[in-house]
Write a structure and sequence with these properties.
The complex is a heterodimer. By secondary structure, chain A is mainly alpha-helical. Helices cover 66% and strands 4% of the residues of chain A. Chain B is an alpha+beta fold. Classes of the chains: A mainly alpha, B alpha+beta. Chains A and B meet through helix 10 and helix 11 of A and strand 6 of B.
């Protein structure tokens, strides 16, 4: 093919654009690479200056992340039976023994429960509300929508103290339910607005056709509207999860024991036995994974979601 | 199949009266075509019967049963929309099966397969059954949405300009197919169109709507030959009926202010001299654009006419229609 189109960029333009994109991507991804590599460094390498680009990888950070350890004297260490597991060996090389599991696993699970729970609830309620706003004659519709949006016009943490007191009175402090409700309350306005936009784009004729084809309104909603709103639901879910997953301030304020999520927990790892940067980095790396996997899983929908409405089929 | 009756139906959207006091009976087994320009209330009439809209006043009967408070599903009607009717997330096969799988019909799978196969055959879309609905051309989409109505056996088929997006060949094929379905199944159809050929060839009855009012209801020939008003006369006929001052060809009947001349109502054997302005050869017909005392009129002539622009041609009315100042028929 020797023909060319004037709307198609030239080979040189593509090269320049591609190089710029790659450079920008490298810059933005640096902190991430830093965190991931630090997780695999030994404590000494992690604080060496200038920073080591090449280093001997170690799983010590990960072992420290998941365990609590006690220092023992070399004499005591010599009397112990030989280590059975590879991670016991890593710990003993530092003159320590494993005392038990750390709380990271628990906190991580709390994050999963609270993050995904509030995401599900936000998207579920948001979809129903958005559908109602999109399709029904709701009295004071515009005012209600504005009110819903107005809950995001200040930083949520501005109402931290009233929420703290409310949670104490209601017995929601440091509970999974409390955190799920809180994150849902923050996310729902975003969910309603995003989803209303997506549902508005779905022509009503589809539901009308389904009504005439013998379905009830609710059946038409879940058989015809929901599948077509999948794009919007996926992108909304990602935004909601990212907020709930990363939220730090409320988690510090309202959780301490049973319902503490990972974000307030990770910094506390530093204090356990010196400045254990590899363990902190390991915790942060693992903490990144669920959102990354979730996003990659929904990426197909998300990409369509971003360009939604730009191209008319 | 069933008789559908509307009595005193009105509905307003805001200040606009979309349908005003319409009383009309679609007899069992009839093929009724609704005519009227955009905004005349044709689509709204279909939506009222289907149950997608509720009338402000009046009653709708299907098979003698008042259905005003029934849902579209309970009314058992099938509807072909003008556009946007295929479910984009489903395949063609699933689209066709969708009404059969509804909680009201709950058709067994083997019957669904048979029915979908039959309808696909009729509409020549068998080879596309496993395509996504969005992978079809406009014509194929419209055939599938007609098919989605045909898989059912409803009280009435409601069709909103179903053939308007198709090319001429396919439109002609489907016209014959719809007529055949009507004849074979004894189906009752209420059909909205702008197309004169569809109205004249398929309809057993034609209803003409004007600003939400039903201004005439009758057989296609009655509507064409015996229109109640100039408005109705203008709905059918190509080229359109010529409306001229009634006195142009001598003394009109009492009260007449307009003479309506269809192209075939203009004889060329004597009368007033008109000037030939333009000649359009359409192949099967030749149109003459004439000027008579400053009034334009269009008529038909011999396909192989020797007339040229600038020629003079005598014209006189033959069986004309007369209308009063309000447009109502006088004679």
């Amino acid at each position: 093919m020797s023909g060319y189109s004037i709307t198609e960029p030239s080979r040189r333009q593509k090269w320049v654009a591609g190089t710029l994109v790659v450079l920008y991507a490298l810059i933005t991804i640096m902190p991430l690479i830093w965190i991931i590599t630090t997780g695999f460094k030994s404590p000494v390498d992690s604080i060496s200056y200038p920073p080591k680009v090449l280093f001997e990888p170690s799983l010590e950070g990960y072992v420290n992340l998941f365990t609590t350890r006690t220092r023992v004297s070399p004499e005591q260490l010599a009397q112990l039976p030989p280590p059975k597991r590879w991670y016991e060996e890593i710990v003993r090389n530092r003159d320590m023994v494993i005392a038990g599991p750390s709380r990271y696993g628990e906190r991580f699970m709390n994050s999963v429960i609270i993050g995904f729970g509030s995401t599900f609830l936000s998207v579920f309620l948001g979809t129903l509300a958005a559908y109602a706003f999109s399709r029904f004659k709701v009295p004071l519709k515009d005012d209600l929508l504005f009110f819903i949006l107005s809950t995001r016009m200040m930083p949520p943490i501005a109402v931290a103290i009233p929420i703290f007191l409310m949670f104490r009175k209601l017995g929601l402090s440091d509970t999974h339910l409390g955190m799920i409700l809180l994150y849902t309350a923050v996310n729902i306005s975003l969910a309603v607005w995003l989803l209303k936009g997506f549902i508005d784009e779905i022509p009503r004729e589809y539901e009308e056709a389904a009504l005439i084809d013998g379905y009830t309104r609710f059946q038409a909603f879940y058989k015809v509207v929901l599948p077509q709103a999948a794009t919007g639901i996926a992108s909304t879910a990602i935004f909601c999860l990212i907020f709930a997953w990363n939220e730090y301030a409320f988690a510090v304020l309202l959780t301490s024991g049973t319902a503490q999520t990972a974000p307030p927990f990770i910094p506390t790892i530093i204090g356990v036995g010196g400045q254990d940067w590899p363990a902190v980095a390991a915790g942060a790396t693992l903490f990144l994974l669920p959102v990354m996997i979730f996003t990659i899983f929904l990426r197909k929908h998300l990409l369509r979601g971003i360009t939604f409405g730009a191209v008319r089929k | 199949m069933a008789e559908v009756r509307m009595t005193g139906i009105s509905i307003s959207f805001g200040l606009e009266k979309a349908v005003a006091d319409v009383t009309m009976t679609v007899p069992d087994g009839a093929f009724v075509v609704l005519l009227g320009p955009t905004g005349a209330g044709k689509t709204t009439t279909l939506r009222l019967i289907s149950g997608l809209e509720r009338p402000d006043t009046g009653q709708i009967h299907i098979n003698g049963r008042v259905v005003n408070n029934e849902t579209p599903a309970q009314r058992n009607v099938a509807m072909v929309f003008q556009q946007y009717s295929l479910y984009p997330h489903l395949s063609v096969r699933e689209n066709l099966a969708f009404p059969l799988r509804s909680p009201i019909l709950r058709t067994p799978e083997d019957q669904i397969a048979r029915k979908v196969g039959e309808v696909a055959e009729v509409l020549q879309i068998s080879h596309k059954l496993d395509n996504k609905a969005t992978e079809l051309s406009g014509g194929e989409m419209q055939r599938v949405s007609i098919g989605r109505a045909l898989v059912r056996d409803p009280a009435i088929y409601l069709m909103d300009e179903p053939l308007s997006s198709l090319d001429a060949k396919l439109r002609a094929d489907l016209r014959i197919e719809l007529k055949r379905i009507h004849a074979n199944l004894g189906a009752t159809l209420l059909y909205v169109t702008h197309d004169q050929i569809e109205a004249m060839t398929m309809a057993t009855h034609v209803g003409v709507l004007d600003h939400g009012r039903l201004v005439q209801f009758g057989t296609p020939r009655q509507i064409y030959e015996n229109p109640a008003s100039l408005y109705v006369a203008g709905r059918l006929g190509l080229p359109r009926i010529n409306a001229l001052p009634a006195t142009l060809f001598g003394a009109p009947p009492a009260g007449a202010s307009t003479i309506g001349l269809r192209p075939e109502h203009i004889a060329h054997d004597g009368g007033k001299e008109a000037l030939v302005k333009r000649i359009e050869h359409l192949g099967d017909q030749t149109r003459l654009h004439l000027s008579l005392e400053g009034h334009d009129l269009v008529t038909l002539t011999d396909v192989h006419t020797k007339l040229k622009p600038g020629d003079r041609l005598p014209v006189q009315p033959r069986n004309p229609l007369f209308f009063d100042a309000a447009g109502d028929r006088v004679a």
